[in-house]
Design a protein that fits this description.
The structure is a single chain. By secondary structure, the chain is an alpha/beta fold. It is built from 18 helices and 23 strands. The strands form seven sheets. Strands 4-5-12-13-14-15-16-17 form an eight-stranded parallel barrel, surrounded by seven helices. A four-stranded mixed β-sheet has the order 6-11-10-9. The chain is globular and about 75 Å long. Pfam families: CBS, IMPDH. Catalyzes the conversion of inosine 5'-phosphate (IMP) to xanthosine 5'-phosphate (XMP), the first committed and rate-limiting step in the de novo synthesis of guanine nucleotides, and therefore plays an important role in the regulation of cell growth.
C-alpha cells in the first residue's frame, strides 16, 4: 500500500461499483515541465495516435468535420452509421482526402443573397470570406467573392451581395498542389484562392489563414500516406457487411463494432467475418464492462475494446434495463484483464463529464477516452445552433433515444425489428463550446498539466504506476466533492465551469 492513499488493486478490490466522482488521485513528484509530457498512446493493438481523444460515433457528434479536426489535434473521430452506406462512406472519404489548407466543401452564396446572410454565416461558422456562384451552389459558375473588408463598414445589411462582391478574381485550376497554391496566394496577396474546374465551377478553396495552420498541428494523426486517420462504426447486422466493404474501400483505418452489449453471438460472427475478409483493418469490439466479456471478444480477435454500459449523460440503460456497471470499476477491471490477457488497449466510453474525468479514466488503465457530450456542442459537431432562453445550443441525443432510433440508431440495441421501441437514451441539448480546434487544445493542455501533477511523463508510465501500486487513490465523500469544486463565493468568473464542474443531478445547479 502506498504511504498515503490506496493502490488501485486495494481501492477497487472489494467489488463495489465506483465511478469517477468517487475518488481522487494523489499527487506525485514533479521533475519535468508540462511540455515534456508525451500523450502518445495506442488506440488499438497496432495503431497509435498522439493524443488519447476519440469522438463517439453518434449522429450529433461525429461526421467528417469533427473527424478532421480531431485528427489534426492528434486524436481520431469515429463516423456514425445513422445514415445510408453512401453517406457514411462519403464522410470517411472527406477525411481521407483532406489536406490542410484546402477547403473541400466551401459555403457559397448567390448574388441575390444579402450582407445579413454573410453575418449569419460568420456567427455560425466563424468566417466571412464567401465565394459567390450564379445560383449559390457549387453546381454553377463562380462569379465573385465577398470578404470581411467588403462589408465591414456597410450600414445597410439588406444590401444584395452583387453590389459589394469582388468580381476581378485570382483563381487557379483545381488539382494544383498545396505548395503551388501557397505561392499564388503569396504573390497575389489575397486571403482566399478559389480553385475552379474547366467549366469555371468552384471545386475547392484555399485560405491564407488555413495555410498558416499547417504549422499549428504537429501532432496530427496520419497514416504512412500522410492521410488523416479516421474510424467508422458499423452494427452487428448482416446487412452491414455491405457497409463494411464500402467503408474499407473509402479508406477507414479502424472499424468500431457499435453495440450496447457487445458480448453477443452477433458480434462474434461480425468480428470473425471482418478478420477473415479484411485482415489489415483494425477492429474495436464492445461495449463491454466485465472481465468475462473482455476475454470473449479478445478470443475472437479484436484489436481494442470499448468499455462502458449505461454511463453516458444521455443513456438510461442502467435504469431502464437494470444492467450495466459503474464506469470507474468497469474501466479498471476491463483494462486490467485486457492488459494481462493479451496486451489489448481499451477505450473508456461514457461518463466523461469534465476534463478531470479524462485524467481519471486514463489513470484506471484506459489508453484512450471516447467523448460524446463534451464534443457535441462544438461547431464541428453535426447540427445547427439555435437559441433557447438566450443561450446558444445544439441538439445532443443518445443513439438509443426514440428520436435517433427512428433514424436507424436501434441497430446498436438489437431492436430495429421491434414494433415497440424501448428507449435506452434521451434527447437533449448542450451549450455552444466554439470550435473543437480551440476547445480540443484546451483539453490537451489540461491533460499535460494533470500528468505533470501526477508525476508521470507518459501514459505508459501512468499505467505502470497503476499496476505496480505507486499511483495512489483516495475516496471522496460528497462533502469532499463539494470542497473540490467552486464554493463559498457570492459570484465568480470561470473560463467554462461546465468543463470542470458537472451539474448536480439532484439540484440541477452548478456546485
Amino acid at each position: 500500500m502506498p504511504e498515503n492513499g490506496f493502490s488501485a488493486e486495494t481501492f477497487f478490490g472489494d467489488g463495489g461499483g465506483l465511478t469517477y466522482s468517487d475518488f481522487i488521485l494523489l499527487p506525485g513528484h514533479i521533475s519535468f515541465s508540462a511540455n515534456e509530457v508525451d500523450l502518445e498512446t495506442n488506440l488499438t493493438k497496432n495503431l497509435r495516435i498522439k493524443r488519447p481523444i476519440v469522438s463517439s460515433p453518434m449522429d450529433t457528434v461525429t461526421e467528417s468535420k469533427m473527424a478532421i479536426y480531431l485528427a489534426l489535434l492528434g486524436g481520431i473521430g469515429i463516423i456514425h452509421y445513422n445514415n445510408s452506406i453512401e453517406e457514411q462512406a462519403k464522410e470517411v472519404k472527406l477525411v481521407k482526402r483532406f489536406e490542410n489548407g484546402f477547403i473541400t466543401d466551401p459555403v457559397t452564396l448567390s448574388p441575390e443573397n444579402t450582407i445579413s446572410d454573410v453575418d449569419k454565416i460568420k456567427k455560425t461558422y466563424g468566417f466571412s470570406g464567401i465565394p459567390i456562384t450564379e445560383d449559390g451552389t457549387l453546381k454553377t459558375r463562380l462569379i465573385g467573392i465577398v470578404t470581411r473588408r467588403d462589408i465591414d463598414f456597410e450600414v445597410d445589411r439588406t444590401k444584395k451581395l452583387r453590389e459589394v462582391m469582388v468580381t476581378g478574381l485570382v483563381t487557379a485550376d483545381a488539382g494544383i498542389s498545396l505548395a503551388e497554391g501557397n505561392k499564388i496566394l503569396k504573390e497575389s496577396k489575397k486571403g482566399k484562392l478559389p480553385l475552379v474546374d474547366k467549366e469555371g465551377r468552384l471545386a475547392t478553396l484555399m485560405s491564407r489563414t488555413d495555410l498558416l495552420k499547417n504549422e499549428d498541428f504537429p501532432f496530427a494523426s496520419k497514416n504512412k500516406e500522410k492521410q488523416l486517420l479516421v474510424g467508422a462504426a458499423i452494427s452487428t447486422r448482416d446487412e452491414d457487411k455491405d457497409r463494411l466493404k464500402e467503408l474499407v474501400d473509402a479508406g477507414a483505418d479502424v472499424i468500431v463494432i457499435d453495440a450496447s452489449q457487445g458480448d453477443s453471438i452477433y458480434q462474434h460472427n461480425m468480428i470473425k467475418y471482418i478478420k477473415s475478409n479484411y485482415p489489415d483493418i483494425e477492429v474495436v469490439g464492445g461495449n463491454v464492462v466485465t472481465a468475462k466479456q473482455c476475454k470473449s471478444l479478445i478470443d475472437k480477435g479484436v484489436d481494442a475494446l470499448r468499455i462502458g454500459m449505461g454511463s453516458g449523460s444521455i443513456c438510461i440503460t442502467q435504469n431502464a434495463m437494470a444492467v450495466g456497471r459503474a464506469q470507474g470499476s468497469a474501466v479498471y477491471h476491463c483494462a486490467k484483464v485486457a492488459r494481462e490477457y493479451a496486451g489489448i488497449p481499451v477505450i473508456a466510453d461514457g461518463g466523461i463529464a469534465n476534463i478531470g474525468y479524462i485524467v481519471k479514466a486514463l489513470s484506471l488503465g484506459s489508453s484512450t477516452v471516447m467523448l460524446g457530450a463534451m464534443l457535441a456542442g462544438t461547431s464541428e459537431a453535426p447540427g445547427d445552433y439555435y437559441y433557447e432562453g438566450g443561450t446558444r445550443l445544439k441538439k445532443y441525443r443518445g443513439m438509443a433515444s426514440l428520436e435517433a432510433m427512428e433514424k436507424g440508431g436501434d441497430k446498436r440495441y438489437y431492436a430495429d425489428e421491434d414494433k415497440i421501441k424501448i428507449a435506452q437514451g434521451v434527447s437533449g441539448t448542450v451549450v455552444d463550446k466554439g470550435s473543437v480546434s480551440h476547445f480540443g487544445e484546451y483539453i490537451i493542455k489540461s491533460l499535460l498539466h494533470a500528468m505533470q501533477n501526477l508525476g508521470y511523463k507518459t501514459i505508459k508510465e501512468l499505467h505502470n504506476g497503476l499496476y505496480d501500486g505507486t499511483l495512489s487513490f483516495e475516496a471522496r465523500s460528497p462533502t469532499a466533492q463539494g470542497e473540490g469544486a467552486i464554493h463559498d463565493l457570492h459570484s465568480y468568473t470561470s473560463p467554462d465551469t461546465a468543463l470542470f464542474y458537472p451539474p448536480d443531478r439532484k439540484k440541477g445547479v452548478i456546485f
